[in-house]
């Protein structure tokens, strides 16, 4: 065995031989003047798998530095780590860089962990023994001893992935020691030694670190797919259970169905006394643009203000003046109606619709708050709908954010990134579902049932047919604000405009005044334009949700 000059067994089964990444390209110019004349290493592989290295470096010029190989590609999912520890002597270790001390000669020693790989019936020691220096090396020599007989040996010189053999590699006569030599190593080039030992010779094993790759982070297999499905069922089921127990309207025992006229003893009497703004909030659980628009019309119909349409030319923008009616009993207004009334006039007796901005915009938030407080005071909701929506939506957003962070963590450290997606989906479902979490009480559900019956009546073809002619102007006008809520303004405006007095078309209504040469036949178009313009003015304040 002593006569063997080079044993070029490549051990192609080794995953480490086929993998590896060079830190720099061969032939890179020296980073400092000088060279290493001799780099002599004594390597001892111990039974615990730790490789102990003693190194003596003779050099000219400024003390050089060595970049150790501390990481290579092991397989598709992992990197292999080489840990260099316990450095002592004429050198310092910073990260993976060794810097020599003094001048001329430096002696130091250190331990290497993770250099042994079990491969079936053999163990392979692979270490980048010499090289990686910032200056060229004239001669590098390495002697390796181990705890058992050598089974094979080989060496390579050059770049980290080089398959070119070194100058010499030979075992001694005992078969437990190997000597390697390489004449001439360029800047950053390395001498790699590979030795095979019998299986079980050491307790060494590679140190692996999972490498992040998007395809691996979200691996779909039986385990991850089943876990994802189970987690989705659990989380989405929990969201559904929350809605079932917290977000559903209370059931109404024997609640009424069918059309309700809103007339009692010949007088207007909406079901449950619900006013237009309240109906809008009751139906969709939102205080929005249409609720305010309908309330303005309702205040006019009930005699708190008058709507005066302004004359205009063909291409002029339409405008209306809202006029405060004297002697109106403001104490009879609901809190949200009084807030809106004050926001409109703000101490003025009349205000053009086009001028509703400034203080009006800032006070609309009070109208919205008053509407929400009102539906709670009426006993239709146990809590303010906007507060309930905000709370559940916020929880959903927080759960989504936690899912994003969890997905990143799972994807970075494991292959179970898909599980984090389940949390994201559940959080998004809760955030969206939060819009449906406000729940009506039994009283609120009953009021809604009656309101829908009223809507059915207003939508019926014979609505108002049984109303005496003398009462139609007032009664049909009282229906109109509700028609705004129920999106049937055109139909009821046409019904109102069809009312005649003394066999001829009326010129105005008691609550709506048109310009000269205007009569009630134009009311339907005027009313449609007024409601659209009013809704636009309100939504432009950004205090209410646009429809």
Largest sheet: 7 strands, mixed
Give the rounded overall mean pLDDT.
82
Number of strands: 25
Total count of helical runs of at least 4 residues = 12
Q: DSSP strand (E) fraction?
A: 15-25%
Give the terminus-to-terminus CA distance: 92 Å
Structural class estimated from helices and strands: alpha+beta
Q: Segments where pLDDT lies below 50 for 5+ residues?
A: 1-32
Strand order of the largest sheet: 6-9-2-1-12-15-14
Helix content: 25-40%
What is the overall shape?
A: elongated
Radius of gyration: 44 Å
Description of the structure:
It is a single chain. The chain is about 35% helix and about 25% strand. The protein is of the alpha+beta class and about 550 residues long. A 7-stranded mixed sheet has the order 6-9-2-1-12-15-14, with no helix packed on it. A hairpin with a 5-residue loop joins strand 14 and strand 15. The longest helix has 29 residues. It starts with about 35 loop residues before the first strand and ends in an 8-residue tail after the last helix.
């Amino acid at each position: 065995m002593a006569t063997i000059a080079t044993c070029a067994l490549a051990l192609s089964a080794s995953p480490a031989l086929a993998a590896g990444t060079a830190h720099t390209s061969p032939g890179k110019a020296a980073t400092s003047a000088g060279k290493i004349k001799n780099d002599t290493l004594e390597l001892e592989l111990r039974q615990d798998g730790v490789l102990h290295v003693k190194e003596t470096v003779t050099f000219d010029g400024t003390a050089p530095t060595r970049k150790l190989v501390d990481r290579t590609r092991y397989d598709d999912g992992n990197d292999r780590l080489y840990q260099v520890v316990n450095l002592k002597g004429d050198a310092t270790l910073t990260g993976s860089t060794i810097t020599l001390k003094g001048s001329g000669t430096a002696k130091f020693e250190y331990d290497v962990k993770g250099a042994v790989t079990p491969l079936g019936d053999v163990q392979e020691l692979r270490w980048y023994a010499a090289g990686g220096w910032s200056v060229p090396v004239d001669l590098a020599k390495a002697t390796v001893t181990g705890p058992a007989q050598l089974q094979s040996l080989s060496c390579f010189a050059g770049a980290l992935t080089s398959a070119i053999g070194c100058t010499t590699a030979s075992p001694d006569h005992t078969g437990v020691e190997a000597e390697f030599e390489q004449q001439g190593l360029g800047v950053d080039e390395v001498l790699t030694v590979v030795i095979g030992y019998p299986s079980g010779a050491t307790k060494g094993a590679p140190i692996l670190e999972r490498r992040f790759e998007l395809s691996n982070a979200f691996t779909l297999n039986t385990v991850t797919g089943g876990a994802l499905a189970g987690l989705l069922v659990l989380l989405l089921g929990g969201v559904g259970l929350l809605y079932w127990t917290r977000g559903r309207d209370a059931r109404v025992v024997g609640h009424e169905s069918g059309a309700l006229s809103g007339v009692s003893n010949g007088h207007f009497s909406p079901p449950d006394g619900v006013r237009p703004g309240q109906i809008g909030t009751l139906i969709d659980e939102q205080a929005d643009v249409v609720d305010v628009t309908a309330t303005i019309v309702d205040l006019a119909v009930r005699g708190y203000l008058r709507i005066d349409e302004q004359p205009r030319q063909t291409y002029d923008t339409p405008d209306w003046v809202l006029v405060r009616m004297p002697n109106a009993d403001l104490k009879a207004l609901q809190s949200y109606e009084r807030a809106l009334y004050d926001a409109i006039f703000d101490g003025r007796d009349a205000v053009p619709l086009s001028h509703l901005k400034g203080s009006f915009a800032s006070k609309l938030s009070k109208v919205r708050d008053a509407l929400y407080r009102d539906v709670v005071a009426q006993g239709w909701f146990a809590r303010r709908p906007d507060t309930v929506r905000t709370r559940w939506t916020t929880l959903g957003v927080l759960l989504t954010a936690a899912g994003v962070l969890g997905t990143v963590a799972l994807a970075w450290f494991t292959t179970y990134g898909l599980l984090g997606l389940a949390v994201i989906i559940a959080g998004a479902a809760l955030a969206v579902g939060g819009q449906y979490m406000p729940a009506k009480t039994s009283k609120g559900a009953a009021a809604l049932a009656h309101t829908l019956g009223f809507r059915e009546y207003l939508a019926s073809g014979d609505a108002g047919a049984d109303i005496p002619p003398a009462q139609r102007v007032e009664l049909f006008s009282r229906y109109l604000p509700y028609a705004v809520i129920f999106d049937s303004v055109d139909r009821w405006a046409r019904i109102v405009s069809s009312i005649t007095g003394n066999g001829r078309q009326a010129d105005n209504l008691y609550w709506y005044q048109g310009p000269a040469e205007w009569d009630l036949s134009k009311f339907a178009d005027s009313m449609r334009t007024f409601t659209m313009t009013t809704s636009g003015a309100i939504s432009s304040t950004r205090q209410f949700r646009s429809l």
